[in-house]
Structure formats: structure tokens, C-alpha cells
Specification:
Elements: H1 2-12, E1 25-30, H2 47-64, E2 68-71, H3 81-90, E3 95-102, E4 113-117, H4 124-134, H5 146-154, H6 160-178, E5 186-188, H7 191-194, E6 200-207, H8 211-218, H9 220-240, H10 242-253
Parallel strand pairs: 1-2, 1-3, 3-6, 4-5
Antiparallel strand pairs: 4-6
Bound molecules: zinc ion.
Zinc ion (ZN) is lined by residues 31-32, 38, 47, 100, 133.
């Protein structure tokens, strides 16, 4: 019962006010960093570097579209997975987008995949991708209290439907860019998404393990195009989900 009341109190705690309340804020989360290089391409491209470059491009594209952007990392440093969602929560972000590059044993695998959180193990492919991205990180850190760990674990639960719609919007734009029609969104148990108290997705932008895609990922023009596609997905999400934008507006007038 105490837990229930705590949950209620927590859910009613207002988000911190954004610096500029007139603009929607997007948290951009370039995966890996520092000693965690992520996957490596056949020609040596490191996931952590390409994810940061694409993240910088996404920041520019979103800012050009009028959004405020919070980067969970802006340089080559390792930020623990739980801290990434926490940074976004504390900044009062409205969306969370984690950026990664896919790797598969089948070198022919290519294209973009957009994921939202699964609270169970998801499909086999998804579970494998999640295991790769989660590294050794699982439950919330022991430094957090038990209650705060439970709350962090529940944070994304309330946003799963919106997260799916966000994933569909971004996947649609990336499919259009890649000339792919049939690829749908997927669900997997990504640790980085679990604590985000906002619609949240993880984008596997392309396969770093594929020779052609590794070349594209190094290309500044491609990085820009893919960032613009994702920014368009975000704009379409807000266009299709006026309730999110309205809720934000209501919060601002309080
Ligand atoms: Zn990754």
C-alpha cells in the first residue's frame, strides 16, 4: 500500500520545467562511447564514433525544425545506460532517441531497424540485438534505492503505445530513405529505454557489419540524410499525436 501511494505521488510529481518551455525537447542518445566502442565494421569503423556523428547531425536537424535538443553525450565518453534515461528525465525531455548501429553475423544484413521497449524478452532477433546493446548492464544500479529502482523500471511502461507510434513514424521515414517497404518496428528489452519517462525508441541506423553500409555510414551526406529522415519522423509523430503536444502546452500554462 505504501508502495502504491509512493507510486501515485511519484507519478504526479511535475517534471522539471524546461529552459525554454515554448519548445519541445528531444533527448538524443548516441550509443556507447569511451572504452565501450560498440560494434566494429569490416573496415574498422567504430559504432561509438558513427553514432556520435549521426547524433550531432540529428541535433542539427531537430534544432532546424524548432526542437530543443539534449545530448546524453557530446564527446567520446562512456555514460552508463541508466544515467542516459535519467539525464533525459531530469531535463524534462519529451522524447528519447537512442542511436546505434546494427551488427549481424550474416554480412548481407542491411537496413534500418527501429525498436521500442519490450518488457519481456521479445523475439529471438530482438533479444540478440538487445543483449548486444545492453552489454553487461541489467537492473538499475545498486546505488539507487529499491523503490527508485522499481520506479525507474516502470517509467517507460506508461509510454509504450506512444513509443510504438514514434518508432513507426521514424521507421517509415528511414524505409523511404532506404527504398525499403516491408520493414516494421520491433520490440526488445533494451536497458537504456527502461527508465525513460517519455516516448522512447532505439534506432539501429544501419548495419556496420555490412560493407556497403559501413561505407555509407562514413559518408557525411548520408549521415545528414539519415538524421533529416529521423527528424521528419519526430515531426510526423507530433503531428499525429497532438495529445502529446497539447499536454506539453497545458504543462506550460500551469
Ligand atoms: Zn550499439
Amino acid at each position: 500500500m505504501i508502495l502504491l501511494f509512493s507510486l501515485l505521488a511519484w507519478s504526479q510529481t511535475p517534471k522539471p520545467r524546461p529552459e525554454n518551455p515554448a519548445r519541445l525537447k528531444v533527448a538524443v542518445d548516441p550509443g556507447h562511447g569511451g572504452e565501450d566502442g560498440g560494434a566494429v565494421g569490416p573496415k574498422g569503423l567504430r559504432e561509438k564514433d558513427a553514432a556520435l556523428q549521426i547524433g550531432e547531425n540529428l541535433k542539427a536537424a531537430l534544432e532546424a525544425a524548432g526542437f530543443e535538443v539534449l545530448m546524453t553525450r557530446a564527446e567520446d565518453v562512456l555514460v552508463p545506460l541508466w544515467d542516459r534515461a535519467k539525464l533525459a528525465n531530469e531535463a524534462g525531455a519529451d522524447l528519447f532517441i537512442s542511436l546505434h548501429l546494427n551488427a549481424a553475423r550474416a554480412r548481407s544484413a542491411k537496413g534500418s531497424e527501429v525498436y521500442f521497449l519490450s518488457l519481456d524478452q521479445g523475439d529471438r532477433d530482438g533479444a540478440e540485438v538487445a543483449a548486444m546493446e545492453n552489454g553487461g548492464e541489467g537492473a538499475a544500479p545498486a546505488s539507487e534505492s529499491v523503490l527508485s529502482s522499481i520506479l525507474q523500471d516502470l517509467a517507460q511502461k506508461a509510454y509504450l503505445q506512444e513509443s510504438e507510434r514514434l518508432a513507426v513514424n521514424i521507421q517509415g521515414q528511414l524505409n523511404r530513405l532506404g527504398g525499403i517497404k516491408e520493414r516494421g518496428v520491433k520490440q526488445a528489452p533494451f536497458v537504456v529505454l527502461r527508465g525513460a519517462a517519455m516516448p522512447a525508441v532505439l534506432v539501429e541506423v544501419a548495419f556496420i557489419s555490412n560493407r556497403q553500409e559501413e561505407v555509407k555510414l562514413r559518408d557525411v551526406a548520408f549521415q545528414k540524410k539519415v538524421a533529416e529522415s529521423m527528424a521528419m519522423g519526430v515531426r510526423r509523430f507530433f503531428g499525429a499525436n497532438p495529445s502529446t503536444a497539447r499536454r506539453k502546452a497545458a504543462e506550460q500554462t500551469k
